[in-house]
Amino acid sequence: MTSSDDRLHPTRPLLAASIACFRDGKVLVARRGKPPSDRLWSLPGGMVELGETLAAAALRELEEETGVTAEIVGLADAVDVIALDGSGAVERHVAVIAFAGRWRSGDGEIGPEAAEIAWVAPDGLAAMDTTPGLAAVVARAARLVS
After folding, report:
1. If you average pLDDT over residues 46-53, what whole number do you get?
2. Has this prediction a pTM greater than 0.85?
3. Is 21 contained in some domain?
4. Which of 8, 11, 33, 123 is the one with CA 20 to 30 A from 25?
């Protein structure tokens, strides 16, 4: 498992997976409870562990963070999260593979990583404080699920 210290000023990009889980036309989003992106709404997700597939990581993170299970429908997007520090050096670089999925079970629950959760209509994301590009990723995922 990658520690949070290894995530700052990495020597190479890190790999993460997330999932846009849909139930009754709404997507599950979580307000992050820890850095990075603390307090922003995003898809449940996190770092891929050694020996774990991208899809398995997305499903594991969904269940760990929210208690929800899903089935993967397809690959929705790949997003580069690159942040520079004050000197222009790369502070964070994470490649996030986002999947589209259909809800299977669980209503969702909060925890240390997901301080708040909500089932939201995709067009409702515009009114929320989200991670950059979230609405576009969810729109792509919604097309795969419908």
Report:
1. 97
2. yes
3. yes
4. 33
Residue from 113, 94, 126, 101 nearest 28 by CA: 101
Kindly state the tokens that stand for 36.
Answer: 């990075």
In angstroms, the CA 9 to CA 125 distance is: 30
CATH number for the domain spanning 20: value is: 3.90.79.10
Give the pLDDT band of residue 4 (cuts 50, 70, 90).
Answer: very low
Instruction: Give the span between the Cα atoms of 144 and 91, in whole angstroms.
Output: 33
Contact 115, 33 (CB under 8 A): yes
Q: Which residues are within 8 A (CB) of 28 and not within 5 positions of it... i.e. 6 or more apart?
A: 20, 21, 22, 43, 44, 62, 66, 68, 103, 108, 117, 118, 119
2 assigned to some structural domain:
no
Residue 118 within a domain: yes
| Mean pLDDT for the stretch of residues 45-64 | 97
At 8 the pLDDT is 81
Residues of the domain holding 46: 8-145
CA distance 122 to 135: 7
pLDDT score of 6 more than 90: no
